[in-house]
Write the structure tokens for this entry.
Amino acid sequence: MTQKLTQRITINDVASAAGVSRQTVSRALNDKGEIDRETKQRVLDAARDLGYRPSRFARGLVRPDTTSIGLVIPDLLNPFFTEVAAAALEAARARGWHVVVYDTADSLEEERGTLQVIGTQVDAVVGYFSLSEAELDEHTRGMPVVLIGRQSPRFSSIRIEGAAGVRSAVDHLVSAGHRRIGMLDYANRADPSDRHAWFCAAMATHGLATDAVTTAAQSVAGGAEALVELLDRHPDVTAVFTFNDIIAIGALRTVRRLGRELAVIGFDGLQLGTVVDPELTSVALDTRRIGALAVEQAARLLAGAEPLAGDDLVVQAVLLLRESA
């Protein structure tokens, strides 16, 4: 079941379950003294069982400045997530919303801790999550949730589609004469990334081997170290595609230090790629659209309007040619 079909529990639902009026539910939840202890406990039990959360958004119909969303980012030091966060903040401010930003340091434990406190602080949650859907549901029951970069049958999600963009990148390298193309994937994963799958599919269309792959930490230093490892194992590589631009910039640093001729293509299309030498060619994502889409979908879910669906929630990556390849 998708979140499109999941209705937020309202005060009317609690009143019906407890067999009392809306006013009685309000008095019980606000700890007013006008009702007896047994009735109050019945209301509290019904609210807990239903997963009811008092809606600051509903109160925002009178006081619009009370609407708050939680923006969950795995690493604010990574410029990609900073760009997405900036776009989401801009879109939220345009609606007069408050935004609380959480940095989970790409840690499941930090993510879990964030979710344990976030439910009482905000009206909706948008961002990046790695926890299971069961855990997400447990901590956000009844609250609108918009996931970014992750497909989910349970929650609304903004999907990143990079297959065509990565294929364009490999096509570009092949047309330039490269036949031994390597990849630097992301190290902090149990399985190869989607970007690795897109790379392998693109290479297969040209009948090229995909054995020259190693993993890198998501940092400039991680990219530099990983390229050294890759070239030690596969010295015949003449071009490399990387999981993201930060890793690619580290790879460029190694290329310059070694004095080698090596084409480098990143993934993300960060503005940071224009200040390195040579400027970084990248499979680019529209970070402004990602952030704005997340906020728009949250707004629709909060308002009970028809949420965006299908292709309206897909952000396509496209090849951005600069100088490094």
Summary: The longest helix spans residues 287-303.
